[in-house]
Amino acid sequence: MLNACDSLGILVLDEVRSSGSTKNSLNQIEWMVKNHRNHPSVFLWSMANEEGGTQRNIVGKKYMKKMVYLTHQLDPSRLVTAGVNAWGSSVDFGFSEEIDVMGFNYSLDFIDDYHKNHPDQPLIGTETSNASVTRGVYLRETTGNNNVLTDGVGGYYNSDGILIKLKKMPRHIAANNPNKYKHVFKTQKFYAERKFLAGRFIWTGFDYNGETWGGTFPSSSSQFGAIDLAGFPKDAFYYYKSWWTNIPVLHIAQHWNWEGNENKSVDVLIFSNADEIILYRNHKKLGVKKMPEYGYVKWKVKYKPGELRAVGINNGKRISEEIIKTAGNPSRMELIPNKSVLDLKDNGIAAINVNITDKKGVLVPLANNLIRFEIKGDAKILGVGNGDPATAESDTADFRKAFNGKAMLIIQIANSEDKIELMARSEGLKSSSVTIKNPATKK
Prior knowledge:
TIM Barrel, 6-stranded parallel β-sheet, Immunoglobulin-like, 33% strand, 25 strands, alpha+beta, 4-stranded antiparallel β-sheet, 3 domains, globular
């Protein structure tokens, strides 16, 4: 991983797993630093993360001093930090007195005072902001915190491809409720306005298994990520992208399939780095709104089948655009490999995204068809996924249920095979196939 980060220019905060001054903890530091110190991507060592029992007392101060000393002995060229949370009255005691760079986990209310009292100590956001939302899940209207959806799942397919129905549904969270992004908006503005902060890490880039926060079986993910478990961007991804790049970004956090709700109000959330947003419904202009810095714009739009088109404007010129359309019934599958021709460094591995579309090629945003995969040629399936945070489906089967119109799989082609054909089949849908070439073969 560090080799990849070196190559891509991704900065790494390298953190030891065990905090303390025991022989085991110090051995872990020695192993980490000796093995990683020649990687230019590593810019900072971290000794701890949210050690609530010791981070603000004499016990933590003593063992942190030993950890920092050893790290500096092994690598005098880098500074040391720790991710500290649960502040309160003891802000100036414990870890903070021993580490080079103060690491803040959330705790926005204490950062300004800390900097005032420690003006020469570098500060960084070691863990900040999250938006727990589910990719492709939206409410027609959002009020307060009505963001947890417990219907529409139905069940999951076991290892034999048999549907297991659930009486109590797991948790999905609407992605178009501004209340789910409040901390994200606040944190983005806070860090952008304070030049004494070195930067920040969001929690998290990707969804991960664990910390389900009350979701019932088969919920498996906290849903903190800006990208889901299958690598598909969630709506929060586009918010961060809009403020962290100079590339024009515009994203509509909503779908346009609200059959049975004609002429009822639909909440439409838009993220963009354009100065102004113009919204059209079926070519009719609905208005212009200014994009607040580090924020979003929201419309209430009467639902009529067709399309929504949002246009981003800077200085009177169009710089970005996104269109979402009402999809018809699921008709076919679109297979999209990350590469159609592999090279040697790929080790025969390819990732293929699967979209469920209608007959016109429009993504069906609520499709959950079961897809079965077959490979012609010497290759194997390494994994399948769909980003659903609440499923017990196997990640290594030759099938996968789509989740909100999407699924994916990863395959590996044998060294002796110069090409393979991947086929996807689903009941009631037109079959689809794609050929992937592997010219870097060993014959």
